[in-house]
Write a structure and sequence with these properties.
alpha+beta; about 35% helix; about 160 residues; single chain; 8 strands; eight-stranded antiparallel β-sheet
Length: about 160
């Protein structure tokens, strides 16, 4: 009788756990960002200090490499890899792209228009999907459209193309 009572008390927790796994799998399968992406190019970030040239060694090392987004990890170059992630998608305006860098540029100089800065990098429209990963490297991925993305790292903006 005790064994049955224990099993019955565990049943709701088991069902909740199972539902949680199903929800995570379902949301991961709908995630547009999952798959393999190739870093196709990089440009000096508009927020970088013109008096201090960013290190091109890292940029050249990352260019041409691939990054794989899975439900449980980001695989790729060490600077981007992560296994302790928590994906979250936001819908950001221009001033919030690259962790608010364009907004900060505008705050320092009213002539700096976040929308124009974003457009110069290829962002069309007024809001874009941003993928927060929750990883220690604190890199966010900004999606220009369903097959093109960008991220900022060490005063460069890197562009990615989704691979078939």
């Amino acid at each position: 009788m005790r064994r049955i009572a224990r099993l019955q008390s565990c049943a709701p927790a088991t069902v909740l756990l199972f539902l949680g796994v199903l929800i995570r799998l379902a949301s991961a399968s709908d995630a547009f960002y999952l798959g393999t992406w190739k870093i196709t190019s990089a440009v000096v970030a508009p927020w970088s200090d013109p008096a201090r040239k960013p290190d091109a060694v890292e940029m050249k090392t990352l260019a041409g490499t691939t990054v794989m987004f899975t439900a449980n990890a980001i695989r790729g170059p060490r600077a981007l890899a992560c296994s302790a992630l928590r994906y979250r998608v936001r819908n950001d305006p221009a001033d919030m792209l690259f962790q608010g860098a364009f907004g900060e540029m505008h705050a320092r100089n009213n002539a700096s228009d976040p929308a124009k800065i974003a457009a110069a990098l290829g962002f069309r429209g007024s809001r874009w999907k941003t993928l927060e990963t929750g990883c220690g490297n604190e890199i966010d991925y900004h999606f220009l459209d369903s097959t093109n993305a960008a991220f900022g790292l060490n005063d460069y903006v890197y562009f990615l193309k989704k691979q078939p």
